[in-house]
Amino acid sequence: MKLYPAIDLRGSQAVRLYQGDYDQMTVYNADPVAQARQFIEAGAKYLHVVDLDGAKDDTTANMQTIAAIARLGGLKIEVGGGIRDEERIRQYLELGVDRCILGTVAVKNFAFTEQMAKTYGTRIAVGVDMKNGLVAVNGWKEVTPEPGVAFCRRCAAAGVGAIIATDISRDGTMQGTNLELYRELLTIPGIEVTASGGIARMEELAELQAMGCHAAILGKSIYTGAIDLADAVRRYQA
């Protein structure tokens, strides 16, 4: 299983939100590049970056920070947040980002998502954020009527090869991840599932790996020390 430590960017700082609430934000490192370097030193091979400013306000203010992280080398980086057109995808790939995550645009413009999956293949993933089982968009501010699992099935049928699924109610809470959600998603053929949101204990990583999750994203748990990243990498990193 791949392990993705997470860096959420707001104002070029590494932060965490509680349940996606921009008013409940904690700054964990004012230097995201230094934070990424620490992850490399812990043995990380992958990095999950979310541009919170891009997701909320459609800005590219954090792009240079992401470029600086990419220049460190040694990390396969996936980036989400504010990616709404092909130009932004191209920009990130040219910076050295490994794959781009389509979120709101995947829901609002499904035909675009289908085309990007065909054009870029494994360099595109879809981030599916769910609140009470329903798809949430626009920085989690808007909840749609479509069930998240049904949307994931649509993505798979359209040729999307990877889903990053987040239960918003668990994200940043340290209350444990939604294992039942991932069990259900893993019944969808032909799609890689990444678990995100609420992972708080090493035992959860063991369960996610055993059920067949392709990857897991670690956020608050590694910033607070609840999970030791170096130890997790030794035990579970693919």
UniProtKB/TrEMBL annotation:
The active site is at D8 (proton acceptor), D129 (proton donor). One of its GO terms (cellular component) is cytoplasm. PANTHER family: 1-(5-PHOSPHORIBOSYL)-5-[(5-PHOSPHORIBOSYLAMINO)METHYLIDENEAMINO] IMIDAZOLE-4-CARBOXAMIDE ISOMERASE. GO terms for molecular function: 1-(5-phosphoribosyl)-5-[(5-phosphoribosylamino)methylideneamino]imidazole-4-carboxamide isomerase activity. The gene is hisA. Its main location: cytoplasm. It comes from Subdoligranulum variabile. Signal peptide: none annotated. It is found in: Cytoplasm. Its EC number is 5.3.1.16. Belongs to the HisA/HisF family. It is an enzyme of class 5 (isomerase). This is 1-(5-phosphoribosyl)-5-[(5-phosphoribosylamino)methylideneamino] imidazole-4-carboxamide isomerase.
